[in-house]
Every structure is written in structure tokens, then in C-alpha cells.
Amino acid sequence: MYGFTDTNAIPEQTLGLAMSFGGVYFEEVLSGYKTLNVGGRELIGNELETATGKGKDGVTITGQTLPPRPLTIQYKLDAKTDAECRHNFETLNFLLRKNGKNNVAIQFTDEPGRTYYGRLQSVDEVPYDRNTVVGTFLLFCEDPYKYGDSLESIGTSITIGDFCPYDVLPDLITATLSANATKITIDNTTSGKHIILNGTYTAGQVLLVDIANRIITLNGQNIKNNLDYVESDFRSFVVSPGDVITMTPSSSMTIAMRGRWL
Fold it and tell me: For residue 113, is it within any domain?
């Protein structure tokens, strides 16, 4: 599961425009740092795959995808002495890399309830002959979408609500089995997609299907080998507003998911 940071923990009126990167507001831990502007949160275009044909004017569009999203962060870093300036940049380098080679949650105080995921890509040169500088760095979001907070739906038959305009992949499906079974199916009766688990199951056992992290457990034990890889749509079990999700044997489910936006 992705981690979330509560943006309400630091009031907007206190920081103005500020960025949380990996759960840390730089303004709170780095004296003299200020987020000035953020670019890349507006419209995003399409990447088109095209092919040409002999004797054909123009091209034929053969595919369409969304490109990654770059976020350009303009910042100001103020120091009173040369030594403080050097220390500030050491700290900023550390903060931008402390999560290693992993994407981190990126949030902005002027965009509450939305989370991007990315990592540092590049930085611009800054003046080296002064202690107050304005510079930019680029965050690379391989996933162009931004996500909302996790929402839960509960029932034996769950109708997906109209909470966002795009198809989403549920993060987590949990259920307490209501009956013994030799097969479990989770069905999107609207789209025809399925998650099918073979094996032997007993009433009262707790099933967890963590689609985001590709984990399936029963009472905490890994049972991913029970997944019917041929017939299941495990990695593409997307849902849309109005879709109906059921389970066999009929059991009360909890589906956790997050809306996504461009």
C-alpha cells in the first residue's frame, strides 16, 4: 500500500505554498527554505504512436498513452553565512535522496487531498557567489496521475460509487469467508473481470487480496500460488463508477481504493 501524509497536520495559513516530500515539509526542517512555485500540475498531453503507409497522406494513429509527469519545483534558500549556505545544501541534498531509489509521496498545501508519487530527477545550477539563491529541481513522476485518500466500501455486493472520473485499480480487498469452499471468485459482474483462487477454504478465514502490492493471504499466510493465473484478471482488475463487485461464496467484503485525477 502507498503511504499517506495528513496535510491538515500543518495548516496552509502557516506555510503558504509548501511541499511534503516523503512525509517531510522542507520548510519545517530546513531553515531559510521556501517553496516558491510548482510547475507541471496543469494540463497533460498524450503520446501518440503512429505508422506511415505507402501512398497514404499523413499517418495512422496506432496507439495512445499518457506520458510521465514532471514537476518543476522553484525554491528559495536563504542563509546568513557561507557555512550555513553549504550546510543548507547538504541538508537539501539529503532530504531529496533519503528514500533511496524509491518513489515517494508528494503533496502540496494548495492541493489538499491529492498525492503524486515520484523522485528527484535533475537540478538546475544556482549562483555560487551568494548566500540567498533561487533555484529549481525536477521531480519525475512515472505515473502521471495524482491520487486521493483511500475510501472503503463494504457489503456482499458492492456498487462502485461515482467518486472519480477515471477507472481505478483497488488497493485492497478483504473478506471473512461465510462458508467452506474449494474455489473463491471475486467478480466484476459489469466488466466480466475475475480474480479466481483455487484451494480449500473454511468459513471464518480472513482473505486479503492486496492488488497494489500483488499479495494474497489467508489468515496472514501467503496463498498467492492458489491464484488461477490463466483465468484471473489480477493485475487488471480495474473498476469504474457503477460496476458491481460480488464474491463466491457470498461474503461481506471491504474494498479500499483511491480516486485518481490528472
Answer: yes
